[in-house]
Specification:
- The protein has 17 helices and 23 strands.
- The chain is α+β, with helices and mostly antiparallel strands.
- The strands form 6 sheets. Strands 1, 8, 9, 10, 11, 12, 15, 16, 17, 18 and 19 form an 11-stranded mixed β-sheet that branches. A 4-stranded antiparallel β-sheet has the order 4-5-7-6, covered by helices on one side.
- Strand 2 and strand 3 form a beta hairpin.
- Helix 9 packs antiparallel against helix 11 and helix 15 runs antiparallel to helix 17.
- The radius of gyration is 25 Å and the shape is globular.
């Protein structure tokens, strides 16, 4: 999903894997040497099978997808107008841009870029995407990436027929004006066009369920969708007219694979490329036919408290749930958790404890000495609960609230094929029960992963405390996840200081182009979250990728895999 977070990453891993010259000795014939040398060149043809660790929803269009599994599919056949380099700085791709004031931008498109249906990409396809997302009938969550364009709110409210801040100059040039100068207007802008011709006659309210999204998606990427078996697999074939050149592979198949079978399917060759969970690290590392790559990633997990609800009419979070507003209660719950042992036990130690909702790879990440580290200390947790008035009045082993009323927590965790989900969730439940806070699974069990985030978004009353995981994007601004108007702020926590810090960090009149000044504000923001604990940050993860040695040309970095058109296989299969 496109989210507003992150800028400069210092850690990157570039993988250039080439087949070495085959056996023999130094007395090879000229023909043999020439053949050996050729094996280092990308070969044409062949198929790669990429594994998904869980079922995909099938919303195969950037403007509508909701789950990471769908985005893993889309990345092979569709892409942004703008690219990022290895340090996650924005660089020209299909589009380049100019601005003198961070408010008025002129974009220029490459000519001759083709959609998979043969239509040429023009700026009108981008206008179509922006107006789709800003449309009153749009059902997705990405209006946040359009709302700052002049006229977008009026269009969104049905008071205008177009977005006044968008001016088409010609088929390849367009001007976009934002309501104010911000440091990250470009980074926060939606830069994924939609093929207007493909969606002709489809109402915005019907797009998410349309064949154009679910059965026959069209993109700009190196591969085009050939066949979809809903929830199971997507077969893609090479798109010869790809604007960066003809891809090497003939076919890419994205296939749902049970994560419990990771080592087996990699060893057998059923799967060529797969994200590897830390619990499978040792088994995969032992495979002779697989390269296992590790890089500190951009994802973290947390436990979030539900402080209120999402007001759809006002499009903002409202903090009206009193249950978790006692700070000592929240402090006690984090002290009750042994996060270090949790990481060792369920992730083979392949993660780091965090005390902020910003992974340490971010250039805005606060230094550890600037934050309070909540050590595992169950006795301190009990003391804090006593001081806050949470005491066992009736002698049943569980604490009542300060008013003497029964108190319990409904804790939500998603279900899936990962074998660690249930035991790690049970650990959290048990840890809180042991300090006297009665805790049970929301809905009585782990919740189906395909429903989980939809239930969170709709503020299901049984999901009082939830386990969540976020992967971050290219812009360090956390507003899209933790702002007052962020629908993905599932805690519904709001705070005036939170709003002000997030706003100031984007204000050109305050930070200008001074990255250090901007970082200071984000560090202060992290300190606020560290003090107030609307969430309990748990762990930032290492990303692990298992790749069959036959697959070459793969680029690995903190955001994931890229350069799909450069992938190739050495056996031609």
């Amino acid at each position: 999903m496109k989210k507003s977070l992150l800028s400069v990453i210092s850690l990157l891993l570039v993988m250039s894997l080439f087949l070495a010259a085959c056996g023999g000795n130094d007395s090879k014939s000229g023909e043999e040497k020439e053949s050996a040398e050729k094996t280092t060149e990308p070969q044409q043809g062949g198929k790669v099978t990429y594994a998904l660790g869980g079922e995909f929803q099938g919303l195969l269009e950037w403007a509508f997808y909701e789950e990471a599994s769908d985005s893993e599919i889309i990345q092979f056949f569709n892409e942004s107008l703008i690219q990022t380099d290895d340090n996650l700085n924005y660089i020209p791709g299909i589009a380049s841009w100019e601005t003198e004031d961070n408010q008025h931008y002129t974009f220029t498109f490459k000519e001759g870029v083709k959609w998979h249906n043969g239509e040429e990409l023009t700026v009108n396809d981008w206008v179509f995407a922006l107006e789709t997302i800003a449309h009153p009938d749009y059902t997705g969550p990405r209006y946040v990436n359009v709302k700052d364009i002049v006229g977008a709110p009026e269009f969104h409210d049905g008071k205008a027929e177009s977005i006044s801040g968008i001016k088409v100059i010609d088929d390849y040039n367009i001007e976009i004006t934002f309501d104010k100068a911000r440091v990250n207007n470009l980074e926060n802008l939606w830069t994924y066009p939609m093929p207007e011709k493909h969606f002709e006659g489809v109402a915005v309210k019907d797009m998410a369920s349309s064949p154009q999204v679910r059965q026959n998606p069209v993109g700009l990427g190196p591969f085009k969708v050939k066949n979809i078996v809903q929830g199971e697999s997507v077969e893609m074939e090479r798109f010869d007219d790809y604007y960066q050149g003809k891809p090497n592979l003939d076919t890419v198949v994205v296939k749902v694979i049970d994560a419990a079978l990771t080592s087996g399917v990699l060893q057998s060759g059923e799967v060529d490329v797969m994200s590897v969970h830390a619990s499978n690290y040792e088994q995969v590392a032992a495979l002779d036919n697989v390269n296992l790559e590790k890089v500190l990633g951009l994802s973290y997990s947390y436990i979030g408290f539900k402080f209120g609800h999402w007001d759809a009419e006002k499009e903002q979070n409202v903090m009206d749930n009193e249950k978790f507003q006692n700070l000592q209660l929240r402090q006690a719950l984090v002290h009750a958790l042994n996060r270090e042992e949790w990481i060792k036990g369920f992730f083979n130690g392949l993660g780091e404890v965090v005390d902020t909702p910003v992974p340490s790879a971010h250039w805005i990440a606060a230094d550890k000495e600037d934050l309070t580290h909540y050590e595992y200390d169950p006795e301190k947790a009990k003391t804090l609960l006593d001081e806050a008035g949470y005491k066992d009045v009736d002698g049943d082993g569980f604490r009542e609230d300060p008013n003497g009323e029964q108190f319990s927590i409904q804790f939500a965790h998603y279900a899936g094929s990962n074998p660690t989900f249930e035991p790690r969730a049970k650990y959290i439940v048990q840890a809180w029960n042991e300090v006297g806070i009665k805790t049970e699974f929301a809905k009585g069990a782990l919740i189906d992963g395909t429903l989980y985030y939809d239930m969170l978004e709709k503020d299901d009353k049984d999901m009082e405390v939830h386990f969540g995981t976020w992967g971050t994007g290219t812009d360090p601004d956390p507003s899209g996840l933790w702002g007052r108007d962020a629908i993905w702020n599932f805690t519904r926590w709001t705070d005036d200081k939170n709003d002000q810090l997030l706003e100031d960090a984007l204000d050109v009149s305050i930070v200008g182009s001074d990255q250090e000044k901007r970082k200071e504000l984000y560090v202060e923001w992290q300190q606020l979250w560290n003090e107030q604990l609307p969430i309990i940050p748990i762990v930032e993860y290492y990303d692990l990728w298992g790749m069959n040695k036959r697959v070459q040309g793969v680029h690995v970095s903190a955001p994931g895999l890229s350069d799909f058109h450069k992938w190739y296989v050495t056996d031609g299969k």
